[in-house]
């Protein structure tokens, strides 16, 4: 059975361009409810831990540096089949290939600065939600 939550981050460039409100509107208009949310800034060590699954990939160091370069907004989103549904709302990894009207199409500026993160599996959604939020911060 598919899960009902996913974890998103509004990444530093999108945050810096003041797209946070517009991105959150797209998320709620798509039928997600927000069950946890915070604004924070990752340290290098925290970004390394979050992206540990990518540590063998050539862009890992760039990604870690980028993700710790400025404030982000992290949120747990809930909806039936949330992981897959949210990936439809955000579009392809590279904004150039993202379907028109998706978050990465509208607010992404490069492959790396592609506006938002979205979990890739139910298992990772729970790991990522626990990374950012204690039980007291989840509603
Ligand atoms: P996602 O699940 O769609 O976010 O994509 P991936 O899990 O493949 O990659 C994680 C993140 O790494 C992406 O969202 C991008 O921010 C970044 N990324 C992916 N591929 C590249 C790349 O080739 N170069 C750089 N600099 N960043 C990349």
Top-tier CATH class: Alpha Beta
Average pLDDT level: 97
Q: Do you know the CATH architecture?
A: 2-Layer Sandwich
Instruction: Compute the number of strand runs.
Output: 4
Number of domains: 1
Quick one: biggest sheet? Answer: 4 strands, antiparallel
What is the H-and-E element order?
EHHEHHEHHEH
* Share of β-strand residues: 15-25%
Give the CA-CA distance, first to last residue. 22 Å
What would you report as the Rg, rounded to the nearest angstrom? Answer: 14 Å
Shape: globular
Within the largest sheet, what's the order of strands?
2-3-1-4
Helix/strand structural class = alpha+beta
Instruction: List bound small molecules.
Output: guanosine-5'-diphosphate
CATH homology group: Nucleoside diphosphate kinase-like domain
| CATH topology category name | Alpha-Beta Plaits
Supply the number of helical segments: 7
Residue stretches low in confidence (pLDDT < 50, at least 5 long) are: none
What is the helix fraction of residues, given as a range? 25-40%
Please characterize this protein's 3D structure.
This protein is an alpha+beta fold and 139 residues long. The chain has one domain (5-42, 71-133): Alpha-Beta Plaits, CATH 3.30.70. The protein has helices spanning 12-16, 20-29, 44-50, 60-67, 82-90, 103-107, 122-132; strands at 5-10, 33-40, 72-78, 116-118. The protein has a 4-stranded antiparallel beta sheet with strand order 2-3-1-4. The radius of gyration is 14 Å and the shape is globular.
